[in-house]
Each structure stands twice: as C-alpha cells, then as structure tokens.
C-alpha cells in the first residue's frame, strides 16, 4: 500500500509540475500561456471588477500550495492572504518572480520526502 501511495504522490507531483512548466496533458502549461506577457499587461485590469493576469497567477500559486499541503496530509485551509496574495509593485523582475516562486518552493518541500529533487526549477525522479 505504501508503495502505491508513494507512486500516486509521485504521479501527482509530476502532473502538477507539467501543468505549470510544460508537457501537460491538457494543452499549454501556465508558463507557456504566460510567455511574452509583460509586467504591465499582467498588472492591467482591462475588465472592470475582474482580476488581473498577475493576480490570477498569484492565486494559482495559492491553489498549488493547497494541493501540495493536502499531498503532505495537512488539512489546513488557505488564509485569505495565501488564497489571493497581494500583488507586488509592478516590475519585470517582480512579474518573473511571481510566475516561479510559489510553486518552486512548494514542490521542493513536498516531493523531497518521496525521493524527488528539484533541479533547475524542474521536479525530477531521484
């Protein structure tokens, strides 16, 4: 049973990584869709009352955080700040960091116990 659970977690971690970075089953990954989107475009609110691309990217990070917590067996919900994190000041560097930081940190924390390593921002079987 433990081997099956470990394999299931490995498969889920791989699918989460692929959905974010590439080679996903459902089409373009998050990073592929965001390629070429400038910080200014990401921060814009072209539809009144709707979230910006940047806000949605930060929200996705919260969603990934929740999934990865559940994979670790935690029951905690996201705080409002984790679910919809505040957007940093608009800059190209902050936009790049927003796209990568949350998932990169959480994948490392989650998959290391299951003999995965994060190298160059990608989850790989050890």
Strand order of the largest sheet: 1-2
Integer tally of domains: 1
User: Averaged pLDDT, please?
Assistant: 78
| Gap between N and C termini | 21 Å
- Main structural class: mainly alpha
Please provide the count of β strands: 2
Q: Any idea what the radius of gyration is?
A: 15 Å
Provide the succession of SSEs.
Answer: HHHHHHEE
Could you describe the largest sheet, including whether it forms a barrel?
2 strands, antiparallel
Our estimate of the beta-strand percent is: 5-15%
Task: Please tally the helical runs, counting DSSP H or I stretches of 4 or more residues.
Answer: 6
**What is the molecular shape?**
globular
Q: Low-confidence stretches at least 5 residues in length (pLDDT < 50)?
A: 112-126
Helix coverage percent: 55-70%
Helix/strand layout:
Elements: H1 2-21, H2 30-34, H3 39-43, H4 53-71, H5 80-83, H6 92-111, E1 116-119, E2 122-125
Antiparallel strand pairs: 1-2
Helix pairs in contact: 1-6, 4-6
Keywords:
126 residues; mainly alpha; 6% strand; globular; disordered C terminus
